Fold this sequence. Notes:
The structure is a single chain. By secondary structure, the protein is α/β, with parallel strands linked by helices. It folds into 4 domains: about 5-225, Rossmann fold, CATH 3.40.50.2000; about 235-440, Glycogen Phosphorylase B (Rossmann fold, 3-Layer(aba) Sandwich); about 470-565 and about 650-720, HAD superfamily/HAD-like (Rossmann fold), CATH 3.40.50.1000; about 575-645, 2-Layer Sandwich (Alpha-Beta Plaits), CATH 3.30.70.1020. The chain has a 9-stranded mixed beta sheet, sandwiched between helices. An 8-stranded mixed beta sheet has the order 22-21-20-19-18-27-28-29, with helices on both faces. Helix 1 crosses helix 18, helix 10 crosses helix 14 (about 345-355) and helix 20 packs across helix 26. The relative contact order is 0.07. The structure holds GDP-alpha-D-glucose.
Amino acid sequence: MxxxxxxxxxxxxxxxxxxxxxxxxxxxALEGIRDRYDLHWIGWTGAEIExxxxxxxxxxxxxxxxxxxxxxxxxxxxxxxxxxxxxxxWPLLHYMQSYADYQDxxxxxxxxxxxxxxxxxxxxxxxxxxxxxxxxxxxLLPSMLKQANTxxxxxxxxxxxxPSYEVFRCHPRREALIRGLIGADLIGFHTFGYLRHFRSxxxxxxxxxxxIDVIAHxxxxxxxxxxxxxxxxxxxxxxxxxxxxxxxxxxYKKLYEDKRLVLNVERMDYTKGIPRKLAAIEExxxxxxxxxxxxxxxxxxxxxxxxxxxxxxxxxxxxxxIGRINGRYSTVTNTPIHxxxxxxxxxxxxxxxxxxxxxxxxxxxxxxxxxxxxxxxCQGDDPxxxxxxxxxxxxxELFSATQVNPYNVHEVVDALKAALLMGREExxxxxxxxxxxxxxxxxxxxxxxxxxxxxQVSPTPAAAPSNQKLSGDxxxxxxxxxxxxxxxxxxxxTLVDIVRNxxxxxxxxxxxxxxxxxxxxxxxxxYVVSGRAPEFLEQHLGHHPVTLVAxxxxxxxxxxxxxxxxxxxxxxxxxxxxxxxxxLYAATTPGSSVEEKRSALVWHYRKADPEFGRWKSGExxxxxxxxxxNLPVELHHGKKIVEVSSQQVNKGxxxxxxxxxxxxxxVLAAGDDQTDENMFALRSPNIITVKVxxxxxxxxxxxxxxxxxxEFLDLITEEISSQ
Length: 723
Ligand code: GDG
């Protein structure tokens, strides 16, 4: 049976004299897939466990539940949980940037605790296991796990919204958080909107390319998808069939016999919009004196994160408003608001859901909101009305709820009045299709969807480094003594990493040492074959006795010689027609520019907005295809560039020339880009071709990054220098 290690901030097990399993949605979701997967839990124990007790607690959790605890001190919990997670990331994920605080020491603890979680996972994970990480407390964990063991299939699910890039970018540790996440093989969100925002942040902050469902990076892929969470289906079904529920419902029916009941259930959190909801209730009571006596509002606000200042302020604000409203509108026989700052038992909650004539679910923003779905699941033949904020993720699915803008108090008041007066048929017509959906697509369904997709990701990345193979047979052929051999090496993306500013892509010390060692061998010729201008290559590599090929083969410089045109009959008159088109795109795409090379014109859009730049590049290519079809040019869409170059010049052409002129026994050609495919197209038993990085290729071998290719060149250098 395949193993799934589920990692969430809190273990779903309460540690006391006895271990007791809690019954949240996540627990039931995962219990529902236990018959197909061997499930393990990892999480924080909640309260601080004394050092002397930890070993015993660990043993009991392992024996009774196959769970692994993560311990932290009270101080660490304050810094990691209340501080960084709940006073820094949570408000930002919910568009409340003015509530987002930040402290360096919070972040340091967040890193340390994420590392502790990683250790806990690695202590029990076996190669190939699936690890499912939950939520914003553990955003760094996916990358930590992947770095430690690439064979793990790591999934991450975000239970909150992911905000617009413009908001997310405010966070002082934005890059670290995003980098942490993309370590995962699969990242799930409740809605497509959150996915879209996440992609946008990845593209802008990390300058990575992303398709609608995948992000390519570091030679591998992270898939992204939409998985709307559902209710604890089996839990609700069982409760609604129970005697305990029926009795409770009967008692509430009696208690509220002549009342219209409006139910509100949420954590005491500023995202849930309680003060605005109270403003609507107050306006409703003021403007509808005829409905005052017959309407009772029950507000259950579950205490939450009381160690965070903002939550204390909220409690004071809510208590003050409720006191004022009840003081003003109570009569001898009715108190408008029954306020419970606490939670009720599950059977009471279900009975309240069923009895309530209206549920007001009016968060200012909410990842999903399960209360809305649970309310629907508890409706019978004479259902109530769900008033639902359009800013809850659930609004995407609960299409026939009465949707409101919670910021518009008048609209909420009108919706409330209409709901209280709505006829039975209309209520049924609204609830029934939603009920079918929430009962079928429950949390078990959700977990199944996610795990099935995670199971399918390839733990070995698509663009897997084949260093093993490369360093075996290829290394042997290349280092065999007494044979003449050549290396044709592309520069950007092969010998050095692609960077934002191309001027900064200079050779490392290690690269210089390697070139110096290789190039002094009589039996080995090195060619650096680049799209760069000769001046750049001359400046950075000119002192090595290697052949430099610039501008994709337009100019060459052999060791000890000066630069010359590779082919002096190249026709470049097309430039006059192409340049104005590129100039127009540079002018209308902020951040983009035109580079004029001797044999090519290049439109660069690396510094433009990634989505706008990509769209404009498509437009430009379309326009160029029409206008250059009869010109002697090639069109190339590379990494953040569109290049128009002479057809008479290409890297493959130059390589062919040198290979046929010299009688090499073995030739290695390596590159990362479309222009290198011209070298890879040369087929001969003595030519070994290597693609660096992801993407389609005709090359026979692949390594994942310039760093991996550098390791391979180091091996050659070592081997050769020991001969
Ligand atoms: C986060 C996201 C997302 C509430 N009062 C009582 C009680 N509850 C239970 C409800 C429901 C749960 O608490 C609340 O879940 P929500 O989804 O509404 O909200 P968050 O706690 O903010 O959850 C949210 C969710 O994660 C899942 O991904 O939907 O957007 O913010 O299940 O039933 N349960 C009992 N008594 C109560 O008084 N027994």
